[in-house]
Amino acid sequence: xxxxxxxxxxxxxxxxxxxxxxxxxxxxxxxxxxxxxxxxxxxxxxxxxxxxxxxxxxxxxxxxxxxxxxxxxxxxxxxxxxxxxxxxxxxxxxxxxxxxxxxxxxxxxxxxxxxxxxxxxxxxxxxxxxxxxxxxxxxxxxxxxxxxxxxxxxxxxxxxxxxxxxxxxxxxxxxxxxxxxxxxxxxxxxxxxxxxxxxxxxxxxxxxxxxxxxxxxxxxxxxxxxxxxxxxxxxxxxxxxxxxxxxxxxxxxxxxxxxxxxxxxxxxxxxxxxxxxxxxxxxxxxxxxxxxxxxxxxxx
Length: 300
What we know:
Layout: E1 32-34, H1 45-57, E2 64-70, H2 74-81, E3 88-93, H3 100-106, E4 111-118, H4 122-132, E5 139-142, H5 153-161, E6 166-170, H6 182-195, E7 199-202, E8 211-212, E9 219-220, H7 223-229, H8 235-243, H9 247-255, H10 259-268, E10 269-274, H11 278-286
Parallel strand pairs: 1-2, 1-10, 2-3, 3-4, 4-5, 5-6, 6-7, 7-10
Antiparallel strand pairs: 8-9
Helix pairs in contact: 5-6, 6-8, 7-8
């Protein structure tokens, strides 16, 4: 799995800086949160930080979200960034509400871009976030997979829609059981869409198109599939989009999106964590959906 620079633009091109005359389509802006230190990438923090800074100064910087870090590695991260300037960090808390207070204190050296709090009790998570989170810091509440199997999903989404927080769902992991199937994921996406509840995803989405991993046999969802399914409110229709394995079919559907549809999609599906920034960008380039194309200059 690559965590380095995308395979494009070619060496020596003028597209090496975000200051250059290049743009990232609205559909992909801020979509890729940098989870390089998480499995299966597991890049050492001392390597992940400079790689992230390079992404943030590249021409595709507008596609890259914050650097994600678990609560247990904040000390390591602080040592890695000492004397190198500010870093926007998304704080990932798999241990639930008990981690929130200590992690917020430990995150003081960083520019806190958001908090992702795993829970089996959404009401408790919302209460703790309301109590401890600074009002200018966004948060997402990560839901357990069993909710997708009809055990309280609607009730949990109702709690979140009345809060200030997004939902979050794991779409993969390092074992087959971590990957929800199309119908399970569709239940989450459409439940959020019907409520106007924004969400983020994490894990297993670093490729654009749904596929079977040839090494593990895991069924990976594609992030283009999820983007396109995000506008659906019908579960069967969303599941059909999630099941599509033809990249050209998905690319054609993306090109046909109106500006309004893009807004609806990104207001719903706000971002996902990926241990590789290069792979999703390279996939988009291969499908003809992203390239360092010059902006059209306005007449003066």
